[in-house]
Design goal:
With 168 residues, the chain is an alpha+beta fold. It has one domain. Helices cover 52% and strands 15% of the residues. It has 8 helices and 4 strands, in the order αααααααββαββ. It has a 4-stranded antiparallel β-sheet with strand order 1-2-3-4. The longest helix has 17 residues. It is globular, with a radius of gyration of 16 Å.
Length: 168
């Protein structure tokens, strides 16, 4: 594949590129594809703090549906098998393995790298936080066990920490 082809794929599949980079690099602060994600996160925190809840479009992102959709489109465009993204069990297995890799070397962004309004630090982990955040997610999803657990740990500029956990 030529350098020009790779550049076009980067523009056409920015979310997929971000998640691919995440799996192979300890630090991707140089990755400009991460900036829209982080801005969306800051906006979601701002919305929640204002009492407006978390926007549904952002909840879709938390579930990694954008990653799955873009991955499916990439496989289709390149004539590759797509069972991984079409079969729910296969996707859950992949996502569980993927999240284990990225949680081993969590990516952390700070205000020095991107000018957040409210967030000073953001990390994705496999930690299971205790308390209200966990109970909130369980109340949304019911008692059915889910195969993949991830947690966004958000440190706010005022020093407080929020956990936004989710299952898939």
């Amino acid at each position: 594949m030529s350098e020009g082809d790779r550049r076009n794929l980067r523009r056409e599949f920015p979310v997929l590129k971000l998640f691919c980079d995440w799996a192979v690099h300890i630090n991707i602060e140089w990755n400009r594809e991460a900036e829209p994600l982080l801005r969306e996160f800051d906006g979601a925190v701002e919305s929640a703090k204002a009492g407006n809840g978390i926007p549904f479009s952002f909840l879709q992102f938390l579930s990694l549906s954008h990653f799955r959709d873009e991955f499916a489109r990439f496989l289709h465009v390149n004539g590759l098998p797509s069972r991984l993204v079409e079969d729910g069990d296969a996707w859950d297995l992949f996502l569980n393995l993927y999240s284990a890799v990225v949680s081993d070397c969590p990516i952390t962004y700070t205000k020095a790298q991107i000018a957040f309004k409210l967030i000073s630090k953001l990390t994705l982990t496999k930690d299971v936080p205790e308390g209200a955040s966990y109970a909130f997610v369980r109340s949304l999803l019911g008692e059915e066990p889910h195969s993949v657990w991830m947690n966004w740990r958000i440190e706010l500029m005022d020093g407080t920490v929020e956990n936004w956990p989710f299952y898939n």
